[in-house]
Amino acid sequence: MKNVIKVSCWTVLLLMLSFICVVPHEVAAKEFRDVANSHPNYAAIREMEKAGFISGYPDGRFHPNEPVSRKHVAVLMDRALGFKQPTSNKVVFKDVPKKHSYYTPIMKLYNEGIVGGSANGKFNPDASVTRVQMAKMLDLAFGLKISDTRWFNDLDSYHWGFTHVDALYSNGITSGDNGNFYPNKPVTRAHYAEFLSRSMKVGKSKPSTSIVTKSEAMDVFFRLPTEIDYKIYQSKSKKEKFSQARSEFLPYATERFADGLIKQEYPHLCNMCDAFIFPYVSFETQIRFDFEQPDSNTLKVHTILVHTPGAVLGGGFVDYIYKKEKDRWKIHDLQFTSPGKKNFELTMEEAKLIIEDFYGEVRYKSVSSMTSTNLLTNERYVFNQYKFSTSLYNEVTINSDDGWFE
User: Fold this and answer.
1) How confident is the model at residue 273 (pLDDT cuts 50, 70, 90)?
2) In 106-145, which positions are buried (b, 16+ CB within 10 angstroms) versus exposed (e)?
3) 284: DSSP letter
4) Is residue 91 in a domain?
5) Is residue 46 a contact partner of residue 110, using CB atoms and an 8 Å limit?
6) Do 109 and 241 reside in the same domain of the chain?
């Protein structure tokens, strides 16, 4: 993340204030009659009001529990990020004519690719913004990077908004509520102030150069497989053949990959079974994640998949090759290699991190030398087996060759 250049929220604020004439008493944060200082979003509401990004009602109230509408989100984001003026006066949405009072901010977000309309060509400006819609807007507006992944009980990876919610989680903008995200729940004015405040503290990433940073490599690694999985889920739900769905994969995969592995596996994939194209890698990237860029249009990523109990795929090495086409990274190749003589060789610290991810705090006990056989070559090799104790179990063992633990 250290190579990603960010603009701080206070820099944005100073730039905005340099173009807006306000009198001193308007700069000071207001105390809203219905937002006590004990309110969980009190600090964010005052901060965003002082910055001029949100405001209250004439009666001195903020109405924190009132849902925020799509048109209001458009104007609030425009205030915070200062998007460029629309280059034309075209009408994109049937319900947002040029005379609409929110036409300009809505069109600014549309031109930035942050919002789109519904299937009937409408924007629905007065409709409430749901939490998953908000996640998409903030993700795209701030150019967030995914460095971790999180499963919420009510949002699986086949949901169109999974990567956007993941981006908010990765950047500490949301943590959910007892394992749930409540994607279809309307966003209240108080919660929107909180989300906007946190997003601005993360900062808006500037366009990347031709040199890929680790955060950008991880973002590509986490996003593209999920986007393809979602497209597969959609097409299989509609009972489409590969030839009908092929064009849906091309924004995320090269023709070589689409006509190769995706086409090969497509007939065997189903929406209600454990049939996947991509290995599900999550916390492993915090232990092993290497990348290289042979040229400006090629990116290689190397990581591991730990052999956890119940995993569909056993442990192994995961290698991706991405190609950039028209300024978009696409999956070009995927290799999954089972560990053998050339195994993970996990250190004790790495093994400890894996166990901690599942059980919380652990204590190292001992290490033993073990032997195994490479199933492909029949070669014998030696590996370490580490033993830990946890609050739940007196002893948990983990193998250094493939990460298997029990």
Assistant:
1) low
2) bbbbbbeebbebeeeeebbbeebbbbbbbbbbbbbbbbbb
3) G
4) yes
5) no
6) no
Last residue of some domain: 337, 361, 391?
Answer: 337
CA dist 164 and 132 (Å) reads: 8
* Residue whose C-alpha is closest to residue 56's, from 80, 13, 26: 26
Same domain, 201 and 218: no
Question: What percent of the chain shows pLDDT beyond 70?
Answer: 89
Q: Is the dihedral of CA 124, 127, 132, 133 positive or negative?
A: positive
Closest alpha carbon to 135 in 125, 122, 126, 144:
144
Q: Maximum Cα–Cα distance for the chain, whole Å?
A: 79
Q: How far is Cα 136 from Cα 183, in angstroms, rounded to an integer?
A: 11
- Choose one of 138, 171, 205: the last residue of a domain: 205
Residue 379, pLDDT score: 85
Read off the pLDDT of each residue in 21-45 and give the average, rounded to a whole number.
Answer: 72
The CA distance from 175 to 356, in Å, is 19
Q: Lowest mean pLDDT: which of 100-109, 214-223, 243-252, 311-320?
A: 311-320
Considering the domain architecture, whether residues 218 and 201 belong to the same structural domain is answered as: no
Q: How many CB atoms lie within 10 A of CB 366?
A: 10
For 70, 137, 208, the CA distances from 126, given in Å and listed in that order, are 6, 16, 35
Q: Are residues 274 and 377 in the same domain?
A: no
**Which stretch of 88-92, 125-129, 185-189, 294-298 has the lowest confidence by average pLDDT?**
88-92
In terms of residue numbers, what domain contains 395? 348-399
Residues 10 and 107 in one domain: yes
Q: Answer yes or no: is 229 within a domain.
A: yes
pTM of the model as a whole: 0.84
Angle between helices 214-237 and 162-170 (to 10 degrees): 150
Q: How many domains does the chain have?
A: 3
